[in-house]
């Protein structure tokens, strides 16, 4: 028995293992087909957009790209941006960059914006963006160094250089927002829409 009513699994236009696991845990079968698009080029062409608008633009572009390849399938794309003040952050490329990035966030509140775009029959049928606010505690440089040693290469897989579901939670003092949004997939509004369209059992 399955909650998913369609004959074929949902296509996830993302290589994120976390997003895939969230959907699987919610009873939604998933086929993974990451979108091969130039995200940095889209960012440069959309420099006038706010961080949440940029997340929405990237999610839409990813979904549109994969939906063109699978026009008869339901395709979900997602993207996440992170900002602190006027600065927009990207995934750190090495440990030095990760250390500098996390140090710049200590004692401050930053925002994570997670956007989704759902396509069916080749067209976008649902879009949404949710925001979470996270405050890092004022940790010492030594603590940040020890954290990075323990986290290892995982710091390169997230825009903030941390995984809140792992030891990254040690960096934080306060969290405001939905847990799924922080992980990069606003799951509750997505499920509400899927249930309304009876893709899953209402």
TrEMBL record:
Q: Where in the cell is it found?
A: Cytoplasm
GO MF term set: nucleoside triphosphate diphosphatase activity
Specify the enzyme's EC class, one word. Answer: hydrolase
The EC number(s) attached to this protein equal 3.6.1.9
Keyword vocabulary terms for this entry? Cytoplasm, Hydrolase, Nucleotide metabolism
Q: Which cofactor does it need?
A: a divalent metal cation
Known InterPro entries for this protein?
ITPase-like_fam, Maf-like
Top-rank taxon: Bacteria
This entry carries the following GO cellular component terms, namely:
cytoplasm
CDD domains per record? Maf
In its keyword annotation, does this UniProt entry include Hydrolase? Answer: yes
Among PANTHER family, the record links this protein to:
BIFUNCTIONAL DTTP/UTP PYROPHOSPHATASE/METHYLTRANSFERASE PROTEIN-RELATED (PTHR43213), BIFUNCTIONAL DTTP_UTP PYROPHOSPHATASE_METHYLTRANSFERASE PROTEIN-RELATED (PTHR43213:SF5)
Concerning its family, UniProt says: Belongs to the Maf family.
Please identify the protein, giving its name as recorded.
Answer: Nucleoside triphosphate pyrophosphatase
Q: Which organism is it from?
A: Variibacter gotjawalensis
